[in-house]
Design goal:
The chain has 986 residues and is α/β, with parallel strands linked by helices. It contains 24 helices and 20 strands. The strands form five sheets. It has a six-stranded antiparallel sheet, with helices on both faces. It starts with a helix and ends with a helix.
Length: 986
Amino acid sequence: MAKRRAARLGAAPAAVGSDDDGLLRLLAGLTAVRDGDLSVQLPEDAAGTLGDIAMVYNDMVDRLSLLTSEVTRVAGQVGDEGVLGSRVHEPRTSGAWHELTTGVNAMADNLTLQVRSIAHVATAVARGDLTQKIRVDARGEILELKETINTMVDRLSSFAEEVTRVAREVGTDGKLGGQARVRGVSGTWKDLTDNVNFMADNLTNQVRNIAQVTTSVAQGDLTSRIDVAARGEILELKTTINTMVDRLSSFAAEVTRVAREVGTEGKLGGQATVHGVSGTWKDLTDNVNELAGNLTRQVRAIAEVTSAVAEGDLTRSITVDAPGEVGELRDNINAMVESLRATTRANQEQDWLQTNLARITGLLQGTRSVPEIAQLIMTEVPPLVSAQYGAFFVVEEGEHGPELVMAAGYGLAEPPESGTPRRFRFGQGLVGQAARDRRALLVDTVPPGYATISSAVGSAEPTALVVLPIVVEDLVLGAVELAALHSFTALHRDFLDRFVVSAGAVLSSLVANLRTDALLAQSRNLADELRSKTKELQARQQELQRSNAELQEQAALLAERNKDIESKNRVIEQARQELEERAQQLSRTSRYKSEFLANMSHELRTPLNSLLTLARLLAQNPAGNLTKKQVNYAEVIHSAGSDLLQLINDILDLSKVEAGKMDVRHEPFLVSHLLEHLTAAFGPVASERGLDFTVSVAREVPESLTTDEARLRQVLGNLLSNALKFTDEGSVTLSVEPADAAETPTDLRGAAPVLAFRVTDTGIGIAPERLRHIFEAFQQGDGTTARRYGGTGLGLSISREVATLIGGAIGVESAPGRGSRFTLYLPVRTEPTAPAAPATGEDAQPLEHMLPEPSAPGALAAESGAAVLVVDDDQRNVFALTEVLKTDGLRVVTADGGRRAIELLTESDDIELVLMDVMMAGMDGYEAIEKIRRLPGRANLPIIVVTAKAMPGDRAGALAAGADGYLAKPIDETELLTMIHQRLAK
């Protein structure tokens, strides 16, 4: 090849026609190789590149030919001749040809290993060794063959073991009845198994039949015969025994007839008549006749009662005399009938009880006012308990304290003459006494003249009276009084006891909702009044400005009128003072609003704390003594309380925004962390509602942003929550991408780029006329009175204000029936990337209070039995906190105020931690903390403030007073216990 190259270098350039011929020969050779013809060779005497191509081509064809012949040889030896272990030998291969050679060799090796393993197992089976298995790795049809042979070996082994066991039991051990059980066999193996079982079964039947007959004969039973099929010597033995039995049976034929009629055919009343018998056989005949007579009477009596029970008549019982087991059967059947009678009655009563409770509770939950619920109770309850008189009372505040006022009646003789409803103070009359005692009062015998039940045809006096108070958490909400012409049954009493519990829950919820509506209305009125005062103040300011302008003109033109100017100055001074007074009034109004919201928050959070805590404990059902429905009730109560808590937080957020006291801190954080949090929070909600939820981020979006992450998460969370709530089917999408310049709001257009956070849904959409109202407080996209979706309408209002605080803006596009798209436009701040900081502001937890959850909750408290002092003047919160702490193994001491707490700490040295409320009568929590810190040895006592004060500055005030921790009500049990454990550990 080197010589040809040298010749090519020294030779003159070849003609163009010679190059074309060489290319045509190369094309013909390549075409032959493509078609599988490796015999074509190119002449190597061509000069230049064509000669080199010809040499490479010929070498390639030689290698392909050798590789093809090797592969063909291995395939012939392995596939046709059955010679295993052959391999392809081609040392010059490389690249793809080497991989092909390696693949063929691997195939031959695998096939050799698999076939040899199969042959080894087959040889072992042929020699009787059923312990071998094919264990080589295989796939495809070889794997199916491997599994088939292994299954065959398993079945053969099982068959051999079963046949050996049956032969040993029947032939050696004398255990009859054995059967060979081989699973999955078929064909010859199944036939062989069936034959072995048939042989064992025949032998068992024959021997047992002979033993049965001979035993019966030995005991005097001459009715048995050997009737099993037999041959050979077994047949001779069968004939001999049957002949003996026939001879004995001819004597007892009549007795046998009677026994057969009574015992087998069920013909009762038959008697045996045997002439000329005496001795044992006569006694046998008399005994059989007596047996038949007794059995006839007893069976007929039992059949009569059981037939009546089968037809639903549970009033019958067996009265015939019967001793022994028949007597026990009679007693058992009578007891069964009595048990069925009691069970049927109890089931009917429970079904009636549960059905009517569920129906009435469902009706009560649909009511919206106290008079409506009172009238519904008086319409439904008295007829259910067969009462002819009824009255429903609700608690109202009177001049001398709470009073029970009649809100509805049933079957009343005549209304009061004065026209005012009947009233009872606590302790006045039976109604007031039942309310004071908080337990039901029952009068079984009503004295004459006590009351009259009348109708159009006559009147009568009731004989029974019951008064039931409606109590929820030791708070009396109302009472029910019922009277009847007969005594109330136990079922009716049980129904009434359960009913007042359900009615109490519904009435308590209704009262709480009405109170919340009143507070919201009062808040709106205050806000309207504040806006009115603000407009009036602005008008006064404009008037003052105009007056100042006029005074300046008059001073320039009329300098000589100093006295008039001084008079005008005095007017101006008076106006300024009036303006300052109006500003002070506005400040006081704002302060009153803040104090009102703080007090409202405290008054609502205080009962919510105990409600949520106890509802969560009931829902967890640690003792396992609640039914699933009761657990569902507790979960519904907890969910309703959580919704009310969210409403309170929304109102407080709106107040912070309006007062300008919502803190915003711009700090860098990772965009991926924000989206992961939103996906984890709303992904399960979308899955539960059957919606598709996707989050996408454009490549141009930076990895980190600098803004208030907590406020941004609040805005996006509210938009996603609304999208999921108003979407019944389809999808909800969150996308992050740079905003186009054309769509960017005018206020945000500048040097900094703007990101668009788009929340898109396929929900109900918003009508065009509603778009300009949805960002107003207490407004919703579905603003009709029959709207399907709940909510207060504060979310979008708060979101718009928060978006403005962090420097952004919110836009919306929507069409009814097609869905909506809310877009948050947020400028991108350019600052160095840093780890995301924790949330800040009054809602954020200080770093020292962000405690890790312990690995074993309650372990520290259970070991030490630490004593915790709970200081709170609300007994509901004390009860709830006590249950939580005792569940965790802590010992609880309670005090109803700051002074009592100081006394307990002075008297006892074993108190290791204090849970302190703030707003208490007498000495408040802050003053109590300061005095505790001055007690000897109590300077470092852990004190955790647990309060419903959640306004701005409350946390800082608690820590400044000397508290070690701060938790706002309603509390989270896990967070509280974690903080307690860490403080005790320190």
